[in-house]
Design brief:
The protein has helices spanning 3-29, 34-44, 50-74. The longest helix is centred in the N-terminal third of the chain and has 27 residues, at 3-29. By secondary structure, it is mainly α. It is 79% helix and 0% strand. The protein has 3 helices and no strands.
Length: 80
């Protein structure tokens, strides 16, 4: 994978991370959305809360972003 491709992947992961955090915050703080969230959890038949799911997704995205950034940071580059 080229550095440019890794950077694009990191950007996609950051967007996913940001969206997961927004979902988590909505579940935590938006009382008006409580019924909608519960209905979504029921209809999707997920076996966890949407907040927990979003938190887990954000955590995984953060770990992958760090891993890819470390790869770039440790890469040897030949510059002519």
């Amino acid at each position: 994978m080229k550095v440019k491709e890794v950077k694009q992947k990191i950007e996609c992961l950051r967007n996913t991370y940001d969206n997961a955090i927004k979902i988590q915050e909505c579940c935590l703080r938006n009382k008006e959305a409580k019924g909608c969230i519960e209905e979504l959890e029921e209809k999707t038949q997920i076996n966890t809360t949407l907040r927990t799911f979003a938190s887990s997704v954000a955590s995984c995205m953060a770990d992958e972003i760090k891993r890819l950034e470390n790869i770039i940071d440790e890469a040897d580059v030949k510059a002519n």
